[in-house]
């Protein structure tokens, strides 16, 4: 397995993705883990990520020295290469020419890492790679034992290698797709330099995690809050495969779900997979509690608190529960580990099942903690979940509660459900559902004047939102075809009594957020 030490680059998660794609298991940890941790982890190779700091300045991050003493291959990327150079006796300086974006580098004969990996050759017959650079500093003098592996005008040492110790440094980013041969370079490192086989694959993973769940849980009972979203659904299917009826799912219908959602979730889990699911119809309670509340944060708090209370009451009815299962996935784990430095402001208080573990005094079972989103989807398919469920767009915990602006009313939720269903249906028919990361309708409780037939209307507005994003931290609005928007608008206004105007949201994130509240 590979250990990736994170120096804070925005691309670090991508390194892990690429290693996993090469069918090799890896984990991502902060650069300042203890030497004991690294020893216990027993990596067969280490990758040092990029990062925003400069090794020229004092007190900036360094790799634990043990990284270079274990006798295993090390790959330093960008900042990782610079700190490797500095720590092993080379010199790093501020580059006169900074490079951001596409660059070409010529590779030399040294080091197996880049050998024969090539995009094209130049007139002198040299092998050229098209790479993605992003750096202000550069390695100026090689550490003892190293040779230049690639160069260009801006960076005479664009890559370096110590073939004897298997230390490699590359100034460019192989993990981003702009570096065309990036995958090949990462695969070369893990397979040929670290000698790791293609051991990380989904069927094996399913078997292994089933074994682990059984060993952990024994004969105990487990409960899980099923939301119908991808993560909790896949977690439920996996745990059910492992322990069958020892798992009880609680599905709380808060009245703020999408059209037919409760029926679909019950159909898939209770009927199709024969999972024990307690269906709690709590919509009346939620609408009661939300009466007269218009502030977005107040609404989020109420919905979150009510969910916890209902979940708690339901789980108290099941005897001998020892475990609370959650669909936590690897990006959530990384996010909360890095949480001390990131996220200064609370823009929105996210709620899923926050607070539950403490109040319930249960042990946590999180079988997806090691997986990225696309791996979770692959796992879902392998477990027999329907494609529509596995490839569904994300849906926020507070549901339609944050898509009805201001006070939430049952009447508004009904109108929004219909509009949302039409929008999603048309996106699916036109093939745009897969091309967007998230799409939905928003209910605006303002009335505007329209004309229908010969009569005046005075009705509510629906806003449509569709975005494209990698990580949901930033997002672009999707350039849906006008003809598609036109069709959706026509259908919504004609089919839903109470809506006479449809608008399309063309705000990016930032400065807007994806949800309206
Ligand atoms: P924003 O609106 O902050 O949303 O740009 C980013 C992503 O997070 C989702 N979201 C939530 N997910 N619980 C969740 O599980 C929440 O409370 C919540 N609020 C927003 C949102 O749908 C988008 O995908």
TrEMBL record:
A UniProt-annotated Pfam family: NAD_synthase
Catalytic reactions of this protein: XMP + L-glutamine + ATP + H2O = GMP + L-glutamate + AMP + diphosphate + 2 H(+)
Entry's EC annotation: 6.3.5.2
Database matches in CDD domains: GATase1_GMP_Synthase, GMP_synthase_C
GO terms of molecular function: ATP binding; GMP synthase activity
GO cellular component: cytosol
Summary of subunit composition and partner proteins: Homodimer.
Function recorded in the entry: Catalyzes the synthesis of GMP from XMP.
The protein's name: GMP synthase [glutamine-hydrolyzing]
Taxon lineage: Bacteria, Pseudomonadati, Pseudomonadota, Betaproteobacteria, Nitrosomonadales
